[in-house]
Amino acid sequence: MLKRKFTYENLVDLMVPLVCILLGFIVGMILIAVAGKNPFGAYFALFQGAFGSLSNISEAVLKTSVLIFTGLSVGLAYRVGLFNIGAEGQFIIGGVSAAFIGHWVRLPAFLHIPLIFLFAMITSGIWALIAGWLKVSRGVHEVISTIMLNWVAYYLVENWLVVGPMAVQAPSGSTISEAGTPMIYPTAKLWRFVSDVPDLIGKIFVLIAIALVIFFIAYYALKRGTKIRGKALWFFSVITTAVVSAVSAVFVFQWQGGIPGVRMNIGIFFAIAAVVIIYFLLFRTVLGYEIRAIGFNNQAAKYAGINVKRNILLTMFLAGALSGLGGVLMVCGTEFRFPGVFPGGYGFDGIAMALIGQNSPFGILLASVLFGIIRGGSTAMQLPPYKIHKTFADIIQGSVVLFISAYYIIRYVLMLPRKRGEM
Amino acid sequence: MFEQIITLSLASMLQFGTPILIAALGGVITETSGVVNLALEGLMRMGGFFAIVGAYFSGDPWIGLLAGIVIGVIMGLLQAYICVTWRGDQIIYGVAINIFALGGMTYLLERIFNTTGHSPSVQSFSSGIALSLDTARWFLFTLLLLAFGGLIYWLFRRMRALKDKKPWVWLLVAGIVGIPSAFFLSSIQTLINIVWGAFDKQTIFVYFALVLPFLMHFLLFKTKWGLRIRSVGENPKAADTVGINIYLIRYLCVIAACILGAIAGAAMSIGQLDIFDNHMPAGKGFIALAAMIFGRWKPIPTLLAVLFFTLAGVAGDVIQMLSATFPGLQAIPRGWLGSFPYILTLLALAGFAGKAVAPAADGIPYEKGEK
Question: Which ipTM score applies to this complex?
């Protein structure tokens, strides 16, 4: 097997995003200092806001899981050479589809949630496909068409569907526009970790899930890290699993539920699964190879016999589906309806996540964790001693992306010590 | 009734279209020189905000406009430094500025004015320039004369038999046909009323926006500098070979575009209104980009494209006005009307984009000594 040589240049390539993030934070610090506040204290408040209590952590996790989906959407499209600015619109379409199936279809939970996922993926995928089709058949640049589709989605959903045909029948006195769509059925809600693990069967399922995850982790850790093989390997993994599961069983069965502020749900697992799936799709399948080939050199891929149009359309559909799943998490995990004022912006943040994560699935995961924390914590910075508006997170995000666009400058600076050494 | 509707929709077209047109022309000049500017939306936001800040602290809208232009120059230098000198990804830069403007202006709005919704009102241009009916008549006459002249010039350019005639032939024909017909048309009272209603109390930005496409056409297609700009956008290597300073041209064009973007923002904040609303510019920068593509990266077609989009944009207002007489129209939901300009944009791009060809080197950074 070809062993890649790890050079200083590789290190620099890895370091560039980190340096950009660091510079972004420094810009934020300068802004806080200019405002006459203590930047270190403000950052401390930020991280306290993100990790201070269980409900704060859960908010950060919620934001992370949605960011992962929209980030993956942009990142996947980028791999095929398309810049999917339409993640926001696809996100809205996914959310409204979830609200539709969630309220207007009655099914048991094990069918309801998969149906929502499927339906939202199809609708938002088709929404993204419009831009893909315009690209391959009419030559419309996807940046413009996806931006236009964002606005169309925004107006059609938030100014028509949610206040018109899908609006909740308002009791007298309240305004309809604040209400949004009716609540989805409990069967359509994604499980929340702390507040509702409902019954014995649920707890047993959670335990089985924990046991399976622990087993795989233990098995691979032992296989990679030690020289234990054969029956002993199985034996030790099972022992580890049993011990950890027993300990967690104590906690699981003590769960009484009922911390109302904690909204964290199983969505984060779907998000992590999506990261792994997209990684395998891109780097372990023929389709992924073709996608990357097209993104690398459209013409060469065409002459190598790859069906460029079909792959672009397929990728765009998948990208839209990913964004749509972000919207599903928002509706089924957090809001339980499509509210009149939809907490949007995740689609645009997804662009930043993809750029900061350098379009690699795991990079996007890390970027989303970081910015989930920042966005979760930035609400705490609004409190009295600092009173910094929460759009501060946007500033940091914008400056990080700005530094990434100045890629060559940062690379040049990082390469300086090496050059001096050569001379 | 219909006279009133036409007047009102023309007036709101001018208001709606002015920032879009100015920004779109900014897009034209920068992309002609080969640099994509996706940051127009963010630039409009910044320009609009700093214009308000300048006007607020000085009490003079001109200082506000100057403040907007200064921020345009600064952002232009930044973009040129990153995207031209250091060959940064132009699309990523645009996205970064858009995100940055979104958060940064909200932040500054809160720091400077202590609000999150909109700034306090300032001295602005929004009272506009008052026209008398008599001025309106002469204005209409001039417009018609220019329109006839332009039409005849275009005919001369297009028809093979007339192509090689001397310019005075064209001027003579334009004078003989144009002056009497313009004079006759401009004496119709209804037309005078419509023009007066549309242009009365419009801001200086409207006039600026209406003159700008022709100025830019002249700059790009009739001057030495325009030829240089176009050659840098089409084939930078060839331009470099004949000794054109590519970096200088691109720097100038990028800065010009950023100034125009900032002015477009100022046209919204201290032009149309006298406040900065935190939702500004609500996608107008992107419509400007679409109009630029629809106008095939050329100034005068861009003007027509903007007219087309603004027509769609004011369709909602017109339908609202008409629904007083035709109650059936009230059933059309607001969301449909809101999405109409964007759907129209998509359809227009789908129908015509195949013919549109961007400047060949658009979006590709140039490196000296590249093979």
Answer: 0.81
